[in-house]
Amino acid sequence: MTYLLSTYWPWMLIALLFGGVVGFVTFLRSASGWWPDSWPGWFKLLCLLFIVGLVVAVLKWLPGLAGHYLETALLLLGSYIVGCFLGSWLASFRAAELKPQERPSSLAPAAPAPTPVTVSAPVVAAPAVALAANDGHPGHRPASIEKSATPDNLKRISGIGHTNEIKLNELGIWTFRQIAEWTGANAEWVGSYLAFPGRIEREDWIGQAAQLAKGLETEFSRRVDDGDVPTSQ
């Protein structure tokens, strides 16, 4: 093994750097960090192959030249996987910068009004469906805007289908940036209004919208763009 490390370290370094670039781009687009539930399918398969190969190498099931080739491939593949982890870890910091600040739990129950959302279109009092201030829902209703000439396709966010997009439009929600600027109280209110409390937080609508608002992609949005999600067409 020492011989392999001293011989192939330049190639391992290249694999590490390449994995870092791939991990940063891929996991930044996934919008949900670098935990296992956000890994794309190809990366899970790659890790599984690495584990199987490692078991074969440790148990020396491939003696001779075949075993030498296997150990070399494992060194390069392991470097690539480590690079992916490092790149995705750095990408998670980029995604965290876009997430809104949550209110500390120690604050008094009477919270101040949410910070107005900065948008190019003028903010109106209420959209087509007239609703009272919070209409009995917990949290705070997000600000609404008039429909722009080119509204975003909200169905590119995982968890938003035709029905939810229509309901969000009725609330005056037309763009990814609006959702990206929601506070925790806004997400709580919309989740209650749509009759699925907590789902927005679980599916990370805010994080996904933050990536899409920057012109990036998520794994789900790529599937929508490719026509692989019938409910989002």
Overall description:
- It is a single chain.
- This protein has 233 residues and is mainly alpha-helical.
- The protein has helices at 2-30, 41-58, 64-98, 162-170, 176-180, 184-193, 199-203, 205-213, 219-225.
- Helix 1 (2-30) runs parallel beside helix 3 (64-98) and helix 2 packs antiparallel against helix 3.
- The longest helix is centred in the middle third of the chain and has 35 residues, at 64-98.
- It is elongated and about 70 Å long.
In angstroms, what separates the terminal alpha carbons? 52 Å
Broad structural category: mainly alpha
Query: How many H/I helical runs?
Result: 9
Number of strands: 0
Radius of gyration: 23 Å
Share of β-strand residues: under 5%
SSE order and pairing:
Blueprint: H1 2-30, H2 41-58, H3 64-98, H4 162-170, H5 176-180, H6 184-193, H7 199-203, H8 205-213, H9 219-225
Short description:
The protein has 233 residues and is mainly α. It is built from nine helices and no strands. Helix 1 runs parallel beside helix 3 (64-98) and helix 2 (41-58) packs antiparallel against helix 3 (64-98).
